[in-house]
Structure formats: structure tokens, C-alpha cells
Amino acid sequence: MTRGVRRTPEQVFLDSISERDWQAQVIQLAETFGYAWGHFRPAQTSRGWRTPVSGPLGEGWPDLMLARPGRFILAECKRQRGEVSTAQAVVHALLRDAGVEVYVWRPGDLDAVAAVLRT
Q1: Nearest Cα to 87, choosing from 97, 76, 98, 79?
Q2: What is the pTM of this model?
Q3: Contacts of 60 (CB under 8 A, 6+ apart)
Q4: What letter does residue 55 receive in the DSSP assignment?
Q5: The CATH number, out of the four listed (3.30.70.2740, 3.40.30.10, 3.40.1350.10, 3.40.50.970), of the domain defined by the range 13-41+58-118
Q6: Residues 104, 7: Cα–Cα separation, whole Å
């Protein structure tokens, strides 16, 4: 924290939300608006945490796939101060260039997430 800069209670609260809890909130909201969803979960191996996916898109693939009739969305769920990795940025840009809706959502984006999913 930068010296002399005070964070508001809202900022402290948003920073306290884990990526896992935030993702669960996004899933619940997506289900409310009629979306089916998918997520590739990592598993712990003898070499650490791994997600069983291969190919150049694998490392940067977004966390959630959300679909309902006529709409397909990919969403990366990050902590409030979470950073998008270089691999994620490359894959997200490629997917957007292909016409796919791709978002990076943080807890502070709740109203924007609801607006996207509602439409």
C-alpha cells in the first residue's frame, strides 16, 4: 500500500474477495440469466497444479464458458487487483479478433457483469 493513501471500506472489501468466490458469484448470476456454463478445473499433480488442456490456446484460455441460445461468452474472473498474464492477453485478443465475446471481470464489475448477462 502506498504511504498516505487510504483505501475505502469498499476497496478493502473488494480486495478481500477471492477469485474462487468471485467466480462462484459470476456463475450464480449467469445461471439466473439462463446461461449454461463450463470451467476447466486445475488438478494437483506431482509437478504442481495443472489444467489438463493442450495446444497454444490452453495456457491463456478464459476461466468460464457461458452459453445460452444465440449467445456465447468467455469470461476471465480475476481478483480485484488481479493481473492478466501475457498468455491470457494474447489468447483473449485472438478470440476477440475471431468475433468471440471475451471479458475480464473483477468483483468491482458486478453491475457491468449483470448488464452484459442480462442483454
Answers
A1: 76
A2: 0.84
A3: 85, 87, 88, 89, 90, 91, 92
A4: S
A5: 3.40.1350.10
A6: 23
In residues, how long is the chain? 119
19 CB-contact burial (10 Å; exposed 0-12 / middle 13-18 / buried 19+)? middle
In the chain, where the domains are located: 13-41+58-118
* pLDDT tops 70 at residue 87: yes
Please, are residues 33 and 66 in contact by the beta-carbon 8 Å criterion? no
Measured distance CA(83)–CA(89) in Å, rounded: 10
Contact 22, 13 (CB under 8 A): no
Using N-to-C axis directions, what is the helix angle for 19-32 and 110-118, rounded to 10°? Answer: 30
pLDDT(53) > 80: no
The mean per-residue pLDDT over the stretch 6-32 comes to: 94
Cβ atoms of 18 and 80 closer than 8 Å = no
